[in-house]
Amino acid sequence: MIVRFILGMAALILPAIVDAQAYKCSVPSAPMSVRPDLPSATQPQRRLPIGGYTLAITWAPQYCHDHARDPSARFQCASGNRFGFTLHGLWPDGVGKDWPQYCTTTSLIPRAVVAKHLCTTPSAQLMQHEWAKHGTCMAGMTPGRYFDRSGSLFAKLRYPDMDALSRRRLTAGSFATAMARANPGLEASMMRVTATRRGWLDEVWICLDKTFRYARCPAHQGGLSPRATVKIWRGVR
Description:
The chain is an alpha+beta fold. 24% of the residues lie in helices and 19% in strands. The chain is built from 7 helices and 8 strands, in the order E-E-E-E-H-H-E-E-H-H-H-H-H-E-E. It has helices spanning 60-66, 74-77, 111-117, 124-133, 143-156, 162-166, 172-182, and strands spanning 3-5, 22-24, 32-34, 50-59, 82-83, 85-94, 191-195, 201-208. The strands form 3 sheets. It has a 4-stranded antiparallel β-sheet with strand order 6-4-8-7. The N and C termini lie far apart (39 Å).
């Protein structure tokens, strides 16, 4: 069953720019549909000890280039909003290669929580997914606390000049180095860079320890080789 969230501008007012990466973002007055997100045969429930965390951020111009006709991406990509990096989510990692997920069945996240964080994670359905799959595995968390925690970690990040980087020959390693230089305490070895099949920057996964401090990424976490070529889609600027 689809449950509609009515995000009224009069009742739920957000600033036009929430952080440095939301260049333009306004909460819509039209209804947004959100459905429950549940475990499945391919995404089963796993209750495992937490060994650390991953903060995943998405390069929105590339996402919108790839999903321009996707109705679920309309708020982010086709409503006059404009983003740089957006917050994909905060993921608890396991002690080994497997990670906990869908630890507790959950109801829909509150409308006020969606409104507060929509310009950071610009999809109400993605927010529901992140809470159901990842947030429910973190002890003592509510939807509000989970998104406050992930949002505060995201808000601390600073970024290199993406336009300038997009005009250079770039590797995953040199991009990670540029990100590290912009963020004291963050090293290139503490993040993984992912790209599309054609080599366009997709996401950055930042590794955290159990106290949410930057940490060296485990070798099994994946991502591109530091020597892999990466291109940055600028979009319409």
